[in-house]
Amino acid sequence: MASATSNGGTTGNAGLADPLLVSRDHGSTKKQVGPKGKYWEAADKVERRAAKESGGEDGRQLLFRTYKVKGTLLHPYRMLIFIRLIAVLLFFVWRIRHNKSDIMWFWTMSVVGDVWFGFSWLLNQLPKFNPIKTIPDLVALRQQYDLPDGTSRLPGIDVFVTTADPIDEPILYTMNCVLSILASDYPIDRCACYLSDDSGALILYEALVETAKFATLWAPFCRKHCIEPRAPESYFEQEAPLYSGREPEEFKNDHRIVHREYDEFKERLDSLSSAIAKRSDVYNSMKTEEKDVKATWMANGTQWPGAWIDTTENHRKGNHAGIVKVVLDHPIRGHNLGSQASIHNDLNFTNIDVRIPMLVYVSRGKNPSYDHNKKAGALNAQLRVSALLSNAQFIINFDCDHYINNSQALRAAVCFMLDQREGDNTAFVQFPQRFDNVDPSDRYGNHNRVFFDGTMLALNGLQGPSYLGTGCMFRRIALYGIDPPQWRQANIAIEGTRFGSSIPFLDSVSKAINQERSTIPPPLSDQFVAEMEKVASASHDKQTGWGKGVGYIYDIATEDIVTGFRIHGQGWRSMYCTMERDAFCGIAPINLTERLHQIVRWSGGSLEMFFSRNNPLIGGHRIHTLQRVSYLNMTVYPVTSLFILLYALSPVMWLIPDELYIQRPFTRYVVYLLVIILMIHIIGWLEIKWAGVTWLDYWRNEQFFMIGSTSAYPTAVLHMVVNLLTKKGIHFRVTSKQTAADTNDKFADLYDMRWVPMLIPTLVVLVANVGAIGVAMGKTIVYMGVWTTAQKTHAAMGLLFNVWIMVLLYPFALAIMGRWAKRPVILVVLLPVAFVIVGLVYVAVHILFASFVPI
Ligand SMILES: O=c1ccn([C@@H]2O[C@H](COP(=O)(O)OP(=O)(O)O[C@H]3O[C@H](CO)[C@@H](O)[C@H](O)[C@H]3O)[C@@H](O)[C@H]2O)c(=O)[nH]1
Ligand SMILES: [Mn+2]
User: Fold this and answer.
1) Which InterPro entries match (predicted)?
2) CA distance 416 to 426
């Protein structure tokens, strides 16, 4: 697969020749300048030349490419930002000078709103001055780190997966995630997978055991035939995937066998629940002395230490001991999975490595008297357990609803960490989040491309992208709160007060700092397992630095942004890694209610961060100024919604008999508004060009911001106010991954909106606008002959605004329609009907009044 141009540095595009990275038109005569060539050009020519001449500063080659936006696009983009800034300032001056309005309080509010809009626009726009795209050079990595004898010098990686529930988060997804990790293209003895189960359910442990067995078949199959993606569910769902392996003759047969085995594996997963229940009944009838206590039993005849099916004290979700079970030991000690041997006989795996990486089940201890700190708490427990076992230099974490979509992804992240330029200063490498269950028209803006491909590339040109929760590789010591090399003190005190009281753990920290790496974990004695369970116990990190200066940050609804902020604040940088075949892929909520709950959590978390000690204005002493501006934007943006809501409701003024103007002279005002709004979209248009996203992406983003601004964001603000008053944080409501009952329709969830209170303002805005347009039409009929031209223009301009809001709320209107929305044309008919009815009612009322109450 690796092609001829493997020698990094001879041409501008060497290394990009890896088929997983090049753009479709690679190989054409036109000069290649990057994966989305048109608007990007190489930004590292000088560095590359120097590196080549000196053979690399310290003998290391450059492992990633840097691209900047071409001047032809970047200059007008920057220019427009500047021009708009001036236009906005002029607009403010004009408004203040012409402080004439029919409703002064509303005028004052709207001036405050405009100032806020201008300010938050600036916060959003300024950090986008210099977007940078960085592309890993896998060929160079291979050349330097893979040795001719088949071994490798690549560093160790501990891969974390978190799950919170076997029902809400279907086991099949979680196990697919695990399989994609176990089969990933990375040295098998340098990679270990840890599954954190926050439900403490035996079924997840047993599913993991089944997965380990199936992996002995799946992983070699993937390696032999270069399968992509290596999550079986997604792989088998594809229609006739392209074959790119080396054994096409054997592929058909192998594929058939593995597919059959996968189906059986799924059946085994399905039957686990009843098997465990049955087995437990048998053991309970045989072994338990106390009649009412019904334990849940493991296959080996011992009681499961976690949550039981019949819950009792100390054996329920939220109250059980810490559990660490090594499902597959390090490959050097061999696997004991004999049962698969017979199937292996049908498949020819000669010359294929049949080993699989280490696999560990972790369920941290829980106790009602301690806060568990949601996902952050789970990740920190994994961090400690893995430190005792594999203590890899790098960590990568996945949500259970995401999987590795490109088997080279782990290598890609490592490229940034090992690069001679900023490698040692790089704390984390974030990948974009991609989703494969989203409806084709992306009604609720789940793809979020403007953010993942615009905002993040922009930050990449500063101190680096923020941490986004999943698909992010960390340097272990950066997570521990250690400073980057240039600021690091010679002797770092590794104290129990900061890192917790486990001596083996403290040892592991000093080893990690001193880069003493042994990739082989110690043998699993009872005492050692007990130590691992101790560091995963409910109380272990209390009264320590965990969740504050160490590990993922606690006391917040969203641990991600704030953890990234803490690390950036210490002076580390981060990198954004985009790949031509998306590195990871996951599931997004395509149900409006679920989607909004997710947004409430995110925006609520943002506000919580603003009011915490990690406030971007005061925290993080080594943070880059523009990076700080960006973090400030990320924490205050929900406030914008209050003003948007105010504006969105202003069409109610149509319902008032008198003509009221928020600002006089009105025409001038509207023209100003149009100009500065239009400029936002022209800038947005240039932005989507360099970000490589479509108008639809951009448009969905706008629409969803409007929907959020009338529902989720004000809710988050309200939460925050309550939080400040009562000190109660936002509840982490795991995003539902269950699909609606209709299994024939892949997107059934789309039509299944549940009404929740936060949707009321959106509905009010929608109704107010429909009503306003109807009344406006009625007024036009009634006053046609009476109105002056100026009045007519004003009415038209007001209506323009109404229509704009309606267009922005279009996805919400579809959501209300439920299944009817399968034919959106109905809405196009229904809305005008509604306008006409309201209009006619207005006219009728007017006539009625006119005949009874002579004016
Ligand atoms: O007490 C908890 C709660 C959640 N999780 C895990 O957290 C992950 C994210 O939960 P999910 O409900 O899927 O949230 P999303 O809204 O889809 O997640 C996005 O938003 C989160 C922050 O709110 C980030 O942490 C995620 O990485 C990001 O993908 C899942 O693996 C859960 O199993 C736990 O392990 N323990
Ligand atoms: Mn998720």
Assistant:
1) Cellulose_synth, Nucleotide-diphossugar_trans
2) 8
3-state secondary structure of 194: strand
How are the residues of the chain apportioned to helix, strand and coil, as percentages rounded to the nearest 5?
Answer: 55, 10, 40
* Protein residue whose Cα sits closest to atom 27 of ligand 1: 469
Q: Both tokens of residue 284?
A: 């309970």
Counting ligand 1 atoms within 8 A of each CB, the residue from 374, 399, 446, 468 with the most, and so the one to mutate, is 399
Query: Closest residue (by CA) to atom 13 of ligand 1?
Result: 735
Q: How far apart are CA 110 and CA 502, in angstroms?
A: 57
Highest mean pLDDT among 540-544, 666-670, 784-788 belongs to 540-544
Phi first, then psi: give them for residue 260, nearest 5 degrees. -60, -45
CA distance 174 to 682: 42
DSSP state of 484: P
Within 13 Å and on the Cβ side, how many CA atoms surround 156?
24
Picking from 400, 387, 549, 389, the residue whose alpha carbon sits closest to that of residue 471 is 400
For 657, the 3-state DSSP assignment is coil
Could you give the C-alpha distances from 538 to 22, 365, 531, in angstroms and in order? 47, 5, 14
Pocket of ligand 1 (CB under 6 A): 162-164, 169, 196, 198, 374-375, 378, 399-401, 469-470, 558, 560, 598, 601-602, 732, 734-735
Hey, how many other C-beta atoms are within 10 angstroms of the C-beta on 282? 10
Q: Whose C-alpha lies nearest to ligand 1, atom 32?
A: 163
Residue 495's identity, in one-letter code, is E
> Which atom of ligand 1 is closest in space to residue 587's alpha carbon?
17
Q: Is 102 a catalytic residue?
A: no
Q: Tell me the β-bridge partners of 472.
A: 397, 430
Taking the C-alpha atoms of residue 453 and residue 81, their distance in angstroms, rounded to an integer, is 19
* Residue 534 pLDDT exceeds 60: yes
- pTM above threshold 0.90: yes
Beta bridge partners of 132: 68
**Per-residue pLDDT band at 10 (split at 50, 70, 90):** very low
Percent of the chain having pLDDT more than 70?
A: 92
Closest ligand to residue 602's CA: 1
**pLDDT tens digits, 64-87:** 999 999 999 999 999 999 999 999
Interface pTM, i.e. ipTM:
0.98
Indicate the helix (H) or strand (E) that contains 676.
Answer: helix 666-691
Cα–Cα distances in angstroms (integers) from residue 618 to residues 166, 427, 628, 785, in the given order: 41, 21, 10, 61
Please tell me the distance from the alpha carbon of residue 686 to that of residue 519, in angstroms, as a whole number. 48
- Tokens representing 146 are 């893979």
9 pLDDT more than 90: no
Average pLDDT over residues 316-327: 96
Instruction: Work out the end-to-end distance of the chain between its first and last CA atoms, rounded to an integer number of angstroms.
Output: 86
Return the closest-CA partner of residue 774 out of 654, 664, 668.
654
If you average pLDDT over residues 455-484, what whole number do you get?
Answer: 98
Q: Answer yes or no: 198 catalytic.
A: yes
